[in-house]
């Protein structure tokens, strides 16, 4: 049956995610921007929380950890490289480690760029990837700590996942990201269709995440920097993929 997934809006534009294994009753939370909506979601479903999986150290992803741990007794898991700036960890992980949620194993991916200790969690059996502020819906996170080359390598790692993977990212930035994408590829029909769908969803007050990786590959300029048509569109025909990515990221910074 796979893991049940609940997307929880937090703060002004953050998202947290609950996953739950119905067979065992075990559950995990990915990131904890604030405690109240997460605890409310658990209570409404009668779910127990065993683990909190932390993607990176920014306060809008860990601000609710202590309160949730106090309320649930959940164990906290995060990157070994960032142990010094994360909440107290019960388990420190590195790329290649696995985490069990009920009967399913998730894989830890190191995806630096937004921060150097950023990790993602991929649950292949359920087709879920929790990417937080690395790969985002229609975009990618700002490079606060890593170089464009570092982030490009991280995005390629995520792009290699199956196309039917649901990308569970950390913010409701989709419409702004897609408006920028249209400055790179104004004639991309998949992008224009996505802009229309996302606009309608936001008008209804709906979340626009998770998103399918296949849709990101078709519309997200940060994943498409390797394509000759995209390189040509920004006057960088024949240049290296990571340099094209760097130019697109810089344009987004100024957008």
Topology of this structure?
Elements: E1 4-10, E2 14-21, E3 26-30, H1 36-45, E4 51-53, H2 59-62, H3 65-72, E5 75-79, E6 91-93, E7 98-101, E8 104-110, E9 119-123, E10 128-132, E11 135-136, E12 139-140, H4 148-159, E13 166-169, H5 174-184, H6 189-203, E14 211-212, H7 213-219, H8 228-233, H9 241-254
Parallel strand pairs: 3-4, 4-5, 5-6, 10-13
Antiparallel strand pairs: 1-2, 2-3, 7-8, 8-9, 9-10, 11-12, 13-14
Could you describe the 3D structure shown?
34% of the residues lie in helices and 24% in strands. It has 255 residues and is an alpha/beta fold. It has a single domain, classed as Metallo-beta-lactamase, Chain A. The strands form three sheets. A six-stranded mixed β-sheet has the order 1-2-3-4-5-6, covered by helices on one side. α4 packs across α9 (241-254).
Task: For the structure shown, list the relevant keywords.
single chain, 255 residues, alpha/beta, Metallo-beta-lactamase, Chain A, 6-stranded mixed β-sheet, 9 helices, 14 strands
CATH superfamily: Ribonuclease Z/Hydroxyacylglutathione hydrolase-like
What do we call the CATH topology? Metallo-beta-lactamase, Chain A
Oligomeric form: single chain
- Reading side by side through the largest sheet, how are the strands ordered? 1-2-3-4-5-6
Structural class: alpha/beta
Q: Helix amount, in percent?
A: 25-40%
Low-confidence blocks of residues:
none
Separate helix tally = 9
Shape: globular
What is the total tally of β strands?
A: 14
Distance between the termini: 42 Å
- Secondary-structure element order, as H and E? EEEHEHHEEEEEEEEHEHHEHHH
CATH architect. name: 4-Layer Sandwich
Q: Rg, please? A: 18 Å
Mean pLDDT, all residues: 97
Strand content: 15-25%
Output the CATH class name: Alpha Beta
Number of spatially distinct domains: 1
